[in-house]
Model the fold of this input.
Amino acid sequence: MARAPRTAAIRTRTDTQPLRFSPAVQMGSIEGAKAENGVAAPACNGGDQRNGGGGGALPDGEAEAGRRGKVGAAAAVLPLEVGTRVMCRWRDQKLHPVKVIERRKIPNAGPNDYEYYVHYTEFNRRLDEWVKLEQLDLDTVEADIDEKVEDKATSLKMTRHQKRKIDETHVEKGHEELDAASLREHEEFTKVKNIAKIELGRYEIDTWYFSPFPPEYNDSSKLYFCEFCLNFMKRKEQLQRHMRKCDLKHPPGDEIYRSGTLSMFEVDGKKNKVYGQNLCYLAKLFLDHKTLYYDVDLFLFYVLCECDDRGCHMVGYFSKEKHSEESYNLACILTLPPYQRKGYGKFLIAFSYELSKKEGKVGTPERPLSDLGLLSYRGYWTRVLLDILKKHKSNISIKELSDMTAIKADDILSTLQSLDLIQYRKGQHVICADPKVLDRHLKAAGRGGLEVDVSKLIWTPYKEQG
Amino acid sequence: MSRLSFRPRPLDIHKKLPILKSIKDFEDDEAPSTSSSTRNSQLLRLAPEANNEMHQNSLKKSSSEIPTPQFNVVGTYERDYSRTFAQPPSYLRGRGARAEIREFVEYDLDNEDEDWLQELNHEKKILAPERFETLLFKLEVLDHKARERAGIIAPTFGSSVPVLLQLDTAAEALQAHSVRSAVFPSVYNYWKAKREQWQKPILRRLQPPPPVNDTNPYNVFRPREKAHRLHTRRMQRRENNVQSFEKLRQVRRNLDQARTVLEALIEREEKKREVMESEVSLQRIQIKYRHEAQLIEDGFALSGFPSNSWKFGSSEDDFLDSDDTTSGHRRAQSAAVQNPPFTDSKLIVVPAGQMKREMRRRPLPHGWLRKKDLDEPVLLFTRPLDPDKLAAASIVQPPDPPAENGSVAPPYRFQGRIGRGGRIIFDRWNPHLQAPIVNEVNPSVPPNNRPPQPNG
Done:
């Protein structure tokens, strides 16, 4: 497949030429199957990142600063230029290295009074934010010496990638796949979050990424979402007025699953276009590489809700093409930040495979997977496959495993191979199913998340009407 | 031997793979220290339970510290959202889209609207925000309908969307809303100004999507290109016009002609089959005749008739040259002779004496029948070999077998004939009669008589 070489190429680039953001490995939360594009934290440099991210205090940053050569406070001319590297006090009250991405004047203030949009170089760019000058330690300001070298290396790489892009662009995809060149373009467009916060139901949530809201919303840093129809407004009074007339208490589709307080709704993007678009605008705030390029009418949205006497509150969702020519059973997946690390993401993955089983099809998530998406999927695949291998007594083929689980054969192979459970000996491939080894891998794969009770799924596969 | 010296075959996903329940079976005895094979066993060896727990804990600890942006609980939530929802016992069903529900006002006032309304109201209550919202919504819908009627709904957002709705039409249509006549024109003018500033409908549902070829990432939710539905090149070429209609008609004509040709072909083949069947039955009848003749001959032999004296067939060799018609003619002759005519060779129970008489009387047909091999209609297609011609073609008949015991060799001769494929065949032993081919010059020896006994 054409996909493999590209992923490899992007990895190479990531290894040799770190981008502005350094990817932080996050366990347990799903940020989106298709986000990140493999750029964030490939396995090879994940270990370093974990050390840096987990520690809190940052000897690494100091060392880095020393290597670059301090310019010193004397050279710190205000306002700081874009591209400046400096230490910044973060919410943990410690200093972290940042790079200035953008600056803007503070209204009604002195001519040199600016706010700075900074990227914490040791974290994912979801943590980029506007900071005041007081938060910056001006003693640590350094000029960005290696900027030009980086740019040169990038441009060389880009031409090769651009060539490849011409060959490999899949126009039909609902979500374009980014290569290095378009990734740069993407970052240029999205380097500063346009919306800083949203209010959605019970929660006020800091956003993670840029989302292409209509231009009328560009002047607003906080948006108020109706929890049910997901309409978004710029003022609280507008939301309150909307809430008085809004007649929805749950997503506007059919409930197809209910277990306890947990409900799943299927929303047809064609029948509920505005809702689907609202959902995409919202989801993009938390997914880096989701694109909203194409309209929503070819997708179905599966919205997971926790229900109480106020209504059905969205927890997360995944989208799915009505007809996928590449046997994708999932396009985008998101658990909203307040609900992350509670097992909902794994529930969503399991649910997507249960739908595939009902369809009698084998499915796979749309690629590329983000680091977090891949982690969650690997966990799910490992758990499902190893549970079968533990119980199974006789010989079994990959195809049979695929038929039992609706997991694509390629995914099964890559999972078992990455765990070293398939080997070639004495002229044939064998599967290792030592209970102790399997248990260890199962433990490492993490908790199973919330279980899908198939008996409570009332659903028929989508059929085109007329 | 290194395990890397041969390359593993690609894994066949349909092949059943053995499952080894013990890691020891899984490890290769020959190369126990190879890193690839021992990762799992090392996992077991080096990570005892306690160690593993610790590892898990540290993982958990670090994962909980991975930072994500934060969130807070909204203080006014409990007030804003009422506790009025009761889950029905059955699964909820979706209703139609909002656009289909008439009374629902899809539009929400934005900042601009609110500011304008505040200015309009001046602390007085001239127009309630809800009423204003409704008016703007109705204006949008009416204008959309007007553009629909005018047929200028653009499929995608190319140029600015014009305002078609006139003030008087709008006022007329919205009379039922009993807005004060002084207020409505200002609302209309505000709306129209806003529309002209936006250059597109202010109700999101009515805004046209960006064009397909627009690459601006800020513009979202493009329609999918129609061409993408056509999966094959053939489908992409086909258009619904006169040209393709003519093309399809041509295809139809061609197919009709092909059908006619095929039907004629079938008819011809059926005729050919009939011909073949009649030929087969013809030959069957010939075989029956010969079989009967054989039985008659056997009858002679059994009755001890001195068969050696039979000489009359020697001059009848020309029958081998005969084609179907002549042999058929002869068959007809003999059939006329036979009385009653037989239907099956097994039915022949003619008394030997009567047969004898007939034989004598009519030696001719019997002669050629007797000479022919019983079950070999093949002979119909063969010609006698002319020894002179064979010699000319430098084909020599195989020599006679050497004499045994010095005694005089029996007069073995080879019978030459032309086989079906045109090959020359020399028969030494008739496989059906299990008897040697008799000398051509001495054809009177009956096949069953086995004359060439060494001492006979």
